[in-house]
Amino acid sequence: MKFNQLLAVGLAILSGIQAAKMANDYLESERGKPAVKVVPAAMTTVVATAKPLTRGRLLRKADLKQISWPVDSVPDGAYRTISQLLGGSSKRMTLSNFASGEVVTKMRVSGNGARPSLSHMLGKGMRAVAVKVNAVVGVGGFVSPGDRVDLLLTESSDADTGKEIVTTKVLLQDVRVLAIDQQTEDPEYRPKVASTVTLEARLGDAQKSALAAKLGSITLALRSMGQTGDDAHAALSTAKLEDDTSPEKTIVVYRASKPTQYNVPNYSPKHVQ
Predict the structure, then answer these.
(1) Secondary structure in 3-state letters for 119-179
(2) How many independent structural domains does the chain possess?
(3) Domain span at 21
(4) Which residue ranges of the chain lie beneath pLDDT 50?
(5) Using one digit for the tens of pLDDT, what is the confidence trace for 64-122?
(6) Distance between CA atoms of 105 and 79, rounded to whole angstroms?
(7) 102 in a structural domain
(8) Helix H segments across 32-139?
(9) How many helices and strands (H and E) does the chain possess?
(10) 8 Å CB contact between 201 and 129
(11) Exposed, middle or buried: residue 197 (CB in 10 Å: 0-12, 13-18, 19+)?
C-alpha cells in the first residue's frame, strides 16, 4: 500500500475515534441534567355539533356533543355543557350553517325562544328588499340564496312620433340574494321556480328597486361565481335594436339648404361580413 493511501486510512481512523469521543462526552454531560417535565395544558369542555346543521334548525341533544378544549383558547361565547345550551323550557335554533365538529357560540344560535331572523344575515347598513319574480325573471329557477345578480329594468314610453319604445337598462349590479321565497338555504341544490326573491341592498338601492317595480318589469341577471364590481353599461331600446338590425340607414344630405334623403347600407359590425 502506498504512503498516501496509508495516510488517508490513518486520518479516517483518527476522525472516527474523535467523533466517537465527542458523542460519548455529550451523552455523559446530558445524563447529569434533570429531565424536562411536560406540563399538560389545562382542559375544559365545550359544546360542538355532532353533525352538519343548516340554518333555522331546532337544536336537539342528538345534534350536539361535548369535546375537550384547552382552557386558554376557548372561543368567545362558547357553551361549556349541553345542559347550559339547551337548559330551560325554551328552544334554541341555529342562525347559520354548521359543519360537523364546529364549536357552538352564542352569536350563532338564537336566544331562548327566539327564531332565526333574516336581520342576522344583513351586512352593516344594508336592507332586505323583496322582488316578485317568475320563471323568466328568476333565471328559470337557477338563482339560489347566496348568488349575486344584476337587476334589469324594462319599461316602455311613447316617442314624439307616437310609436312605443321599450327600453332596458341596468338598475343595480352585484346584489346578493338572501332568500328564495321563504328559504334562506338551498340544501337540495335543485332549480326551483319561486314567486319572490329577497335581495340585500343599500337603502338608496332598495328605493330604486321599489320604484322600478311600479315603472316596469324587473329581470334578474345571474352573475358568474367570484365576479364582483360594476361593469360599464348603457341602456338598450327597441329603437336602437331596429337601427342596428336594419340592412340600410337613411341619411340626409343638404345642398343649398335643400335636403335630400339617401338609403345607404348599414355598416355596423353586425352587417359587415
Answers:
(1) HHHCCCCCEEEEEECCCCCCHHHCCCCCCEEEEEEEEEEECCCCCEEEEEEEEEEEEEEEE
(2) 4
(3) 1-29
(4) 269-273
(5) 999 999 999 999 889 999 998 888 766 788 877 899 999 998 888 877 555 556 676 67
(6) 6
(7) yes
(8) 82-86
(9) 4, 10
(10) yes
(11) buried
User: Is there a single domain that holds both residue 14 and residue 74?
Assistant: no
Q: Which of 115, 108, 175 is nearest to 145 (CA)?
A: 175
162 inside domain: yes
Query: How many degrees, rounded to 5, is the angle at CA 97 between CA 61 and CA 102?
Result: 60
Q: Given this model, what pLDDT does residue 157 score? A: 75
The residue whose grid cell reads 334562506 is: 184
Statement to judge: residues 5 and 22 lie in one domain: yes
Q: Which of 156, 153, 197 lies closest to 171, judged by CA?
A: 153
Please indicate, yes or no, whether residues 99 and 153 belong to a single structural domain of this protein.
no
Report the CATH number that the domain containing residue 64 is assigned in CATH.
Answer: 3.90.1210.10
Residue 251, pLDDT score: 60
* Residues 236 and 227: beta-carbon distance below 8 Å: no
Q: Do the Cβ atoms of 183 and 159 come closer than 8 Å?
A: no
* Listed residue (259, 131, 144, 248) closest to 201, CA to CA: 131
User: Residue 46's pLDDT is what?
Assistant: 95
Domain identity same for 88 and 175: no
